[in-house]
Automatic annotation (TrEMBL):
PROSITE patterns found in the cross-reference section: GATASE_TYPE_1, GMPS_ATP_PPASE
Any one GO molecular function term: ATP binding
Catalytic activity as recorded in UniProt: XMP + L-glutamine + ATP + H2O = GMP + L-glutamate + AMP + diphosphate + 2 H(+)
Binding site for ATP: S224, G225, G226, V227, D228, S229, S230
Organismal lineage: Bacteria, Bacillati, Mycoplasmatota, Mollicutes, Entomoplasmatales
Protein name per the record: GMP synthase [glutamine-hydrolyzing]
InterPro entries: Class_I_gatase-like (IPR029062), GATASE (IPR017926), GMP_synth_C (IPR001674), GMP_synth_GATase (IPR004739), GMP_synthase (IPR022955), GMPS_ATP_PPase_dom (IPR025777), NAD/GMP_synthase (IPR022310), Rossmann-like_a/b/a_fold (IPR014729)
Gene: guaA
Length: 513
């Protein structure tokens, strides 16, 4: 709260998180809060300099339209309404919004009508902006002037005296050519915010805070080898050293040599206790005969919690449980505007029984993924860990289609290792967002030398994405795929066919299960 200078009130737009990230990228800490946040709540923010009202999927004229506490307009804090936010400002100031005949989705050209407007300082006329709206303003709100338009709509409004601004377009989206400058104008010129957000400052503050909270108590953390829990561990160890014990569970569903690599890099890099628990046998046993993806996920989640709890109970003196929860997890589980349908039950460490009575320590819960990576780099974490592609909580369990067996897990580990090593060799790893292999429950006929083979099919998948909500398949060079395929067929016993998945998300998901 101390750092927060800009608050984004969320009305459920798919771009809300992006708004917050853009503000942070220019050096000011911002937080996303639910649209029901009141003026009294906001008064608790000592350094609040500006408020952004996000976009949203509903219409301001609908019966149960989301609105804000109108006392917020009396706080004398600048407000920028984006899309739905601008329409809401309009509706609440006696203007009118209606369903448009000319709906705009995608690129539009911005014609600036009032160049002196503070929001448009140093902005060139007739630049491209990104639109995504069905409704538009048909009557200006009282006390406001129109400051820009497109061929189809009133694109910006302002009331400089009251420091209220509205834009119909999405300045936070990179397709809006001068979007960052518009956000800078709002944050620095209009709100007079101070540049005070950087990862160095974050680390300094958190280390101090963790020391104050933990004092001389013990902390445990479930390490997964992924970026978030690794960075959380590094940060906590910087603050309290050996008072931290990390537990790393080998589920049998990890990648090749993963347990060894994690143990090696952590024991050499950090001052902490780390314990490896080999629970692979228990996991394979629990998964025997299970084909259904959701059931598999639930079993893996449950087993994980059980192993972890058992270990935790052995550490009688631990008072805190640390987790690598990051900001998108927090927003998604706390902001009411999000009502997306459950496609898969994502699993992370959680569901701890009440009798453990740990206090939670989640030092990364205000950070976005790219910020977490920066913190990792600052703390000296191995680049390979920091820049790693995401790996799902249930691990290879969701990459072995149908029943999980050790035999298939071993085959898949080899295939995956060849694919990833080749991506690194060809300098392609950092150019794609996530790459992996999946083993299918089908055997097909092949020929090797003069012999008939009857072996498994594996599918390679590589996607490019910004937020993992939508994704397209990576256009990997044909020669590369050829080389990887040859190596897999020649080196991995049990596989005689390789396919490349080019499905985008949607309609596919990234993982196959
Ligand atoms: P999907 O398959 O839903 O995946 O398109 C989107 C991203 O989430 C990862 N993923 C998971 N991550 N626990 C996680 O922590 C899970 O249960 C899980 N399932 C999928 C997936 O690898 C991709 O990056």
């Amino acid at each position: 709260m101390e750092n927060t200078q800009i608050v984004i009130l969320d009305f459920g737009s798919q771009y809300t998180q992006l708004l917050s990230r853009r503000v942070r990228e220019i050096g000011v800490f911002s937080e996303v809060l639910d649209f029901t946040t009141t003026a009294i709540d906001l008064k608790k923010y000592k350094n609040l300099k500006g408020i952004v009202l996000s976009g949203g999927p509903s219409s301001v004229y609908a019966q149960d339209a989301y609105s804000i506490d109108i006392e917020i307009f009396n706080l004398n804090i600048p407000i920028l309404g984006v899309c739905y936010g601008m329409q809401l400002i309009t509706e609440l100031h006696n203007g009118k919004v209606e369903l448009a005949d000319n709906q705009e989705f995608g690129k539009a050209i911005l014609n600036i009508d009032f160049k002196e407007d503070k929001l448009f300082k140093n902005i060139n006329d007739k630049k491209q902006v990104w639109m995504s709206h069905a409704d538009h303003l048909i009557k200006m709100p009282e006390g406001f002037i129109k400051t820009a338009h497109t061929d189809a709509c009133i694109a910006a409004i302002s009331n400089e005296e009251k420091k209220l601004y509205g834009i119909q377009f999405h300045a936070e989206v990179t397709h809006s050519q001068e979007g960052t400058q518009i956000i800078k104008n709002f944050v620095y010129d209009i709100c007079q915010a101070k540049k005070d957000w950087s990862m160095e400052i974050f680390i300094e503050q958190k280390v101090k805070e963790i020391k104050e909270i933990v004092k001389d108590e013990q902390v445990i953390l479930g390490l997964s080898g992924g970026v978030d829990s690794s960075v959380a561990a590094a940060l906590i160890s910087k603050a309290i050293g050996k008072q931290l014990t990390c537990i790393f569970v080998d589920t049998g569903l990890l990648r090749k040599d993963e347990a060894k690599k994690v143990m090696d890099s952590y024991t050499t890099l950090f001052d902490m206790n780390i314990k490896l628990v080999d629970a692979s046998y228990t996991f394979y046993l629990a998964l025997e005969g299970v084909n259904d993806p959701e059931q598999k996920r639930k079993i893996i989640g449950k087993e994980f919690v059980e192993v972890f709890n058992h270990q935790a109970k052995e550490m009688h003196n631990a008072k805190f449980l640390a987790q690598g929860t990051i900001y998108p997890d927090v927003i998604e589980s706390s902001v009411k505007g999000h009502s997306s349908k459950m496609i898969k039950s994502h699993h992370n460490v959680g569901g701890l029984p009440k009798d453990l009575k740990f206090e939670l320590l989640e030092p990364l819960r205000t950070l976005f993924k790219d910020e977490v990576r920066k913190v990792g780099k600052e703390l000296g974490l191995d680049q390979k860990i920091v820049n790693r592609h995401p790996f799902p909580g249930p691990g290879l369990g969701v990459r072995i289609i149908n029943e999980v067996t050790k035999e298939k897990a071993d085959i898949l580990r080899e295939v995956d290792d060849i694919f990833i090593t080749k991506l690194l060799d060809w300098n392609l790893y950092d150019k794609v967002s996530q790459a992996f292999a999946t083993i299918l429950p089908v055997k097909t006929v092949g020929v090797m030398g003069d012999n008939r083979t009857y072996d498994y099919v594996v599918a390679l998948r590589s996607v490019n994405t910004i937020d993992f909500m939508t994704a397209t398949s990576s256009h990997l060079p044909w020669e590369f795929l050829d080389e990887v395929t040859n190596e897999i067929i020649n080196k991995v016993n049990g596989v005689n066919r390789v396919v490349y998945d080019i499905t985008s998300k949607p309609p596919g998901t990234i993982e196959w299960e």
